[in-house]
Design a protein that fits this description.
By secondary structure, the protein is mainly beta. The protein has 2 domains: 272 residues, Neuraminidase (6 Propeller); 125 residues, Glutaredoxin (3-Layer(aba) Sandwich). The protein is 10% helix and 43% strand. It starts with a strand and ends with a helix.
Length: 436
């Protein structure tokens, strides 16, 4: 295998067999991030690969803090077509609409934008049903699934109520933070750390990939899912494509030195993904990914044990004296981090005022640079204590699925986890419930 540099912005992996040349896997850098710009959660690509939707996160020099802007970019012209405070965009299967959570004020809430006209429909459904949307077409009806495992059909641009809910299944429960296939039949979800594929409305056809990874996006034909996993020999992430029919996997970005994150399929089989490295920060495409060699899925699942002791995860740190202890695992590259840290610090201050028996700590995931960590802590005036987390124990936290992840210990035993950023109020209520 030979790595060849093509121009200034693309890399092709070329495999020779005699005189014949196999299809190339080609990486192109398509849209760089601005200096200091983060990305809140995942980005999404339109079915034709022309439009990129991502939540830009930038410092607000006028008021302080961070501003999150749902941004829609035409990759052909590199022009911004739409920008509004908000997060979590996802395109319809035909690419004619985009759903997102508006934070523009005035009751925007769950919003649909029409691609051609730019028309907006506000308050499509209750925000209480969840965000982190994914969009399917099931029985010729548009279907929206949320991070909270709720789903609803659309009548035009309006959610049809009551909403449905993913059914729990024996041995796996409901799962966490799902995405739906384009035909609305199956979902990817997290089950104690592992990526599991299952049906939306019943418990048939369950596939445990055996892999710990992040949001797993379905290809348009439903045969493949793509997500990022930790690299084995480096403090970074790479993309994997799982073939659900053959139960095999292909490692897509092993040749790239930085982290490849949150892949999203185009209809013609390309992967759009976010890249974070010293060489480049921005969005990329990978073409011809199915030309890569296959290998079997792991023989056994990497599900996290249900009962984990403090001494197993953090042997370098004495068990806290408090009955309840919170540890938030976060990453400097994650745009969730500033808000999540600030909320955890506010919760800690409230615990102190109430005299609550709760300890609060943080731990840094494996790929974060200490210089970036120091910058974020200084910018946010964060004084939360940090404890070490060895790379070999990172997988036990489920933070591979979602950064940040917060662990709750009671009397030295892990009793609950929360994936994703939590507000101060959510953290306080959580500890009150678990401390009873």
């Amino acid at each position: 295998m030979v790595m060849k540099l093509v121009g200034a912005i693309s890399v092709s992996l070329i495999v020779f067999q005699g005189a014949a040349r196999a299809p190339q896997v080609r990486f192109t850098q398509d849209y760089p991030l601005k200096a200091g710009e983060g990305v809140f959660a995942y980005s999404r690509i339109s079915p034709d690969g022309h439009l990129l939707a991502y939540a830009s996160q930038m410092p607000d020099p006028s008021r302080g803090g961070i501003v999150m802007t749902q941004t829609l970019v035409d990759l052909r012209t590199k022009q911004t077509l739409f920008a509004e405070r908000g997060i979590d965009a996802y395109f319809s299967v035909d690419g004619q609409r985009m759903i997102y959570l508006s934070q523009a004020g005035g009751g925007g809430g769950v919003t649909i934008r029409h691609t051609d006209s730019g028309a907006l429909t506000r308050n499509v459904a209750s925000t209480a049903l969840g965000d982190y949307f994914s969009w399917a077409k099931r029985d010729n009806k548009d279907l929206i699934l949320t991070i909270q495992s709720n789903y609803y059909y659309l009548d035009g641009d309006r959610g049809v109520m009551p909403a449905g809910r993913v059914v729990p299944c024996e041995g796996i429960g409901t799962g966490d933070r799902p995405l739906i296939s384009k035909d609305g039949r199956r979902i990817t979800t997290f089950v104690r750390g592992a990526v599991v594929v299952r049906n939306l409305t019943d418990c048939n056809d369950v596939i445990d990939t055996g892999l710990q990874g992040a949001k797993a996006d379905f290809s348009y034909d439903g045969r493949y899912v793509a997500f990022h996993v930790p690299k084995r020999a480096a403090k970074a992430y790479e993309l994997v494509v799982v073939d659900l029919e053959k139960r095999t996997m292909r490692m897509v970005t092993a040749s790239l030195p930085g982290s490849s994150l949150f892949p999203s399929w185009t209809k013609d089989g390309r992967l759009s993904f976010r890249y974070d490295g010293d060489d480049y920060r921005g969005f990329m495409f990978a073409e011809n990914v199915l030309s890569l060699p296959e290998q079997p899925l792991p023989a056994s699942s990497t599900r996290v044990p249900s009962n984990v002791e403090w001494s197993t995860l953090f042997p370098e740190t004495p068990r806290p004296a408090a009955r309840l202890a919170l540890v938030m695992i976060w990453a400097a590259w994650s745009a969730h981090a500033p808000d999540a840290l600030a909320d955890l610090q506010r919760a800690r201050e409230q615990f102190a005022r109430e005299g609550a028996d709760v300890g609060v700590m943080t731990a840094i995931e494996v790929s974060s640079l200490r210089s970036d960590v120091a910058r974020l802590l200084t910018q946010g005036a964060i004084t939360l204590p940090e404890i070490p987390l060895a790379p070999g124990r990172f997988a036990l936290t489920e933070a591979v699925n979602q950064i940040p992840a917060t662990l709750l210990f009671r009397d030295g035993r892990l009793v609950d986890r929360r994936l994703g950023a939590q507000s101060a109020d959510q953290i306080i209520e959580w500890t009150r419930t678990m401390g009873r």
